[in-house]
Design a protein that fits this description.
It contains nine helices and 17 strands. The protein has 368 residues and is of the alpha/beta class. It folds into two domains: 249 residues, Aminopeptidase, CATH 3.40.630; 112 residues, Alpha-Beta Plaits (2-Layer Sandwich), CATH 3.30.70. The strands form five sheets. It has a seven-stranded mixed sheet, sandwiched between helices. α7 crosses α9. Its cofactor is Mn(2+). It holds the Pfam family Peptidase_M20.
Length: 368
């Protein structure tokens, strides 16, 4: 069995939720140290792990990043953690690539930094690593993700996987309580919420820029069914292809929500949270990954850029350090029935190829 599959098989047996990846972090730190990296644990006062190899020769600092957390599921009525997004696969590929790069003395200049990041699924792991200094000296950072079959298949990879910006918008509507028999004495918070949802649905931006905003949760309860509720809460899921589009969409949505509530005389408090930025990559990083993919798969295995409405907190690295050169590739592996599905499965043989792409990319940066 190959090393990368061996590591994957083990990590798959110890799924842990965000910021609780104690066994996972301990294993990865131990293996990095054995491989010859200088290892720092508890990065950013979390379960984050960073390994550094300094060639001793002046050059760039390249970081390879993998997320390490699992997802929460409820199976047969019982809550549990499961690796259904491939983070165990990402960690296995990055670790195996790191080990092999040092074992074969492939790093000729600069520094190779390995970042094992917690809590990607809850969108705060990257920020914790940044606050812990993980990318202070990094010139280029590369990441990767398994891709579902509908995007690309086994034996193929894209050098640029573009995630959308995503946020949650929350409106808490304030009305006036009243008996159901005397509605004229109250202001129904549900009416305000519905009016706001309708107003948001009427927003139109440039149709050439992909975006979506939709209500995904509404909570309103007076405690009884014959009373008008004085409070209602609505959550909107907001996504856009570009960060600038997200800014415009949020501004228009907040105005629409306030105006919608006002049509029935209600007030509303509007906030946004869980802000994940959209992907922004450097041409240099894309070129490095393109060449690495072609060396592994040939021209026929090189996919064009893939765009997904899904979010990824990897993009905080670019947002918080605009000078960093970032790249992120998507690996085909015949993954079905989909990411985050309890029965998610894929062809593990793809991991060997993903590891090779990472190794070749690292050598192009630190051995050129």
């Amino acid at each position: 069995m190959s090393r990368v599959i061996e590591v994957y098989d083990y990590l798959h047996t110890i799924p842990e939720l965000g910021f609780q990846e104690y066994k996972t972090a301990a294993f990865l730190a131990q293996e990095l140290q054995k491989a010859g990296f200088h290892v720092t644990t508890n990065v950013g006062e979390t379960t984050g792990v960073v390994g550094v190899y300094d060639s001793g020769v002046e050059g760039s600092t390249l970081a390879l990043r993998a997320d390490i957390d699992a997802l929460g599921h409820i199976i047969d009525g019982q809550p549990c953690a499961m690796h259904t997004c491939g983070h165990d696969a990402h960690s296995a590929m990055v670790l195996a690539a790191a080990e092999e790069l040092l074992a074969n003395q492939c790093i000729k200049k600069g520094k190779l930094k390995i970042i094992f990041q917690p809590a990607e699924e809850i969108g705060t792991g990257a920020l914790a690593m940044i606050n812990g200094g993980a990318i202070d000296d990094v010139d280029m950072i590369l990441g990767l993700h398994l891709r579902p079959l509908e995007e690309t298949s086994m034996g193929k990879a894209t050098p640029a996987l573009y995630h959308a910006a995503s946020q949650r918008l929350k409106g808490v509507f304030h009305g006036v309580s009243a008996h159901g028999a005397r509605p004229h004495l109250g202001i129904n918070a549900i009416d305000a919420a519905v009016a706001a949802i309708t107003a948001v649905n009427a927003i139109h931006l440039n149709p050439t820029q992909s975006y979506s905003i939709k209500a995904t949760q509404i909570i309103a309860d007076a405690g009884v069914t014959n009373a008008i509720p004085n409070e209602a809460t609505v959550i909107w899921d907001v996504r856009s292809e570009f960060n600038s589009t997200m800014d415009s969409l949020l501004e228009k949505a907040k105005s629409a929500i306030i105006a919608g509530a006002a049509t029935v005389g209600a007030s509303v408090d509007v906030t946004n949270y869980f802000a994940i930025p959209a992907a922004e990559y450097s041409d240099e990083a894309i070129d490095v990954l393109t060449k690495a993919i072609v060396e592994v798969y040939g021209e026929e295995g090189l996919c064009p850029p893939i765009k997904t409405a899904g979010g990824e907190d990897f993009h905080y690295y670019i947002k918080e350090k605009p000078s960093i050169k970032a790249g992120y590739f998507g690996l085909g592996c015949d993954l079905t029935p989909g990411l985050h599905h309890p029965q998610m499965a894929f062809n593990k043989n793809a991991l060997e190829h993903g590891k090779d792409i990472l190794m070749l990319a690292a050598q192009k940066v630190l051995n050129a």
